[in-house]
Amino acid sequence: MVQVIVGGLQVGSTYALMALALVLVLKATDVPNFAMAEMGLLPAFVVWVLVDNQVNYALAIIAGLAAGVVLGVVVERFFIRPILRSSHFAIVFMTIGLFFVLNSIVALKWDSTPRTIHAPASATWKIGGTVISQQAVVAVVVGFVIMIALTLFFRSRAGVQMRAVAEDRVTPRLLGVRLPWVFRITWALAGAIATVAVVLAAQASVLNDQTGQTLILTGFVAATLGGFASILGAFIGGLLLGVVENLAGAYISTSAASAVSLLVVVLVLMIRPEGIFGQARVREV
Amino acid sequence: MSGIDWRRAGRPAAFVLSTIVLAVLAAVVPYYLTAYSLYILTEVVIFALACLGLTVVIGWSGQVALAQAGFFGVGAYGAAFLSAHGFPWFGAVAVTALAAAFIGVLIGVPTTRLRGFYFAIATLAFGELMTQIFSSWKSFTGGALGLPVDLLRFGSLNPTVSLWYVSAAILAVSLAILWHVSRTRWGRCLRAVRDLEIATGSLGLSATKYKVEAFAVSAILGSVAGSLYGQALTFITPSSFTSTLVIEFLIVVLVGGVDKLFGAIVGAAFLVVVQEELQSVGAYQRLVFGIALVLMVRFLPGGLVPLLYSTVRRLTGRRRKVEAGPLETDPNPVVDVAV
């Protein structure tokens, strides 16, 4: 039981990070980004190539994060910003298109062979009857640190500007907020976080062209559980989802794991349409 | 010479004439095409039918519903199961479509009160759940082993030709009904709900009612298309109805034009042709779809059909009607003004 929960927390942390990246983009630019996981997948492959060529692990991670930041900036500047004035619907389709493009680039370059990123921390500890891997601890700690950092960031000057822009694009501009700059920072940060999420997910299992697809679905589910606007909510939602999935997989059947998590989402949406941590929005004509 | 406005009189005549031409074309096509080409054409028709449902729910009522692959599967399995248990095929399709409509209402009532993105996620979850049910409910669907389909035959015609006639006829009838419906009160109210949901409430229109009905209509179309798809596949497995299919449907709707009835046909033709041409390498398929989506959103947010319309109008010199679709920016955004 405890073993299953530990495994759930490790997977859940990657869901949580993906959810954080999604919430970040949604908070600033108001875009549900279906390409988010693929934006982390390409940099994760950069990490894999470097580690596979005996480059120092830390250097590889830094290079991967840089790639994630660059990709985030490029996507925002050339694909999202030109269509920001059209409806949400159009932007959603744009991100689905980017999902396909990025995913097929990865698939064409590296086919779908499963690969592993060899992390330096791979020992295990035994506490009571439970085996805890350093990987699991690293995943949960990294997720937690990023969550705290993001919460602090949203209280900083740039973070406040970002939230203001999400609420209303006109007034902040009159007050001197540089919209392009805010958007660039957001997407760069989201790209880096997505990279971390995919790298951790790859270390928990394997890396191939399908790693992103499972992660984007679960990321959205976790963000929905958290109410889509709350950093803490998305994080807890991700951990919860990982644990529920693992419990269902262990005690019902492995094929039930994804069905149960989908059921959880549907139930949460039915009972609290704003998510567990969300606040009801007042609508105006 | 006086009295007759030829341009006006020409319209219904042109309509009747083009209908007859299309009907004759559909009737003789099997004698001029290879069995393979006919199969491809049938696939286009089936995908167009499923996506007509999305035109209603996404294009007209403005809700991004992502459960269509589930209804597609319900149609395929329901019709195959019932006709294997003694139902005549058309009866099986009708009963299955009613069941799908019922499921649509069942899902629609709780989900349509969700706003925008939450609705998309909830319907996606329901669609995925249906797919999970297809693979686990083995006595009904045969599980991962699949379910063979009793093939439809009219007299001495072979199954491919029979399926083509049935599919083409059903698509034509559905198009005619929807074209009519789009001009009725129901169709107009649906679009009013899309554009100004809160305002419709103060006019005494129940937004929820219209949204649920639109969802049920799309479920029926998806189910009927699924029954036909089962015939085309001849053997159904749960892997045919995954979320990949949802994205393919979205591509159809977007490439064609979200709120245009003929958009579904244009988009379906694009999808099926790309799939067949790039069958061997899935990654190239996705690359083409992705680039197509990016280019469509960037340069042709209304889809291909408005482009065709405007070309035809330029050629015939008719005035262009200005109408904002759900993808285009509203020139006078009512919502954004209220800060």
Do you know the CATH topology of chain A?
Answer: ABC transporter involved in vitamin B12 uptake, BtuC
- Main-sheet strand order of chain A equals 1-2
The largest β sheet of chain B comes out as: 2 strands, antiparallel
Low-pLDDT segments of chain B: 328-339
Question: Into which percentage range does the β-strand content of chain A fall?
Answer: under 5%
Number of helices of chain A: 11
Summing up helix and strand content along with how strands pair, one would put the structural category of chain B as: mainly alpha
Overall average pLDDT of chain A:
85
Structural class computed from helices and strand pairing of chain A:
mainly alpha
Percent of residues in helices of chain A? over 70%
Give the helices and strands of chain A as they follow along the chain. Answer: HHHHEEHHHHHHH
How much of the sequence lies in strands of chain B comes to: under 5%
By oligomeric state, this entry counts as heterodimer
End-to-end CA span of chain B: 60 Å
What string, H for helix and E for strand, traces the elements of chain B in order? HHHHHHEHHHHEHHHHH
Any descriptors?
heterodimer, A: mainly alpha, two-stranded antiparallel ribbon, 73% helix, B: 339 residues, globular
Structure description:
The complex is a heterodimer of chains A (285) and B (339). Chain A has 285 residues and is mostly helical. Chain A contains 11 helices and 2 strands. In chain A, a hairpin with a 2-residue loop joins strand 1 (124-127) and strand 2 (130-133). Chain A is globular and about 60 Å long. The mean pLDDT of chain A is 85. Chain B has a domain at 24-241. Chain B is mostly helical. The model of chain B is unreliable at 328-339 (pLDDT under 50). In chain B, helix 2 runs parallel beside helix 7 (159-181), helix 3 (68-84) packs parallel to helix 5 and helix 11 (243-256) crosses helix 12. The relative contact order of chain B is 0.15. Chain B has 15 helices and 2 strands. The interface between A and B is large, with 49 and 51 residues.
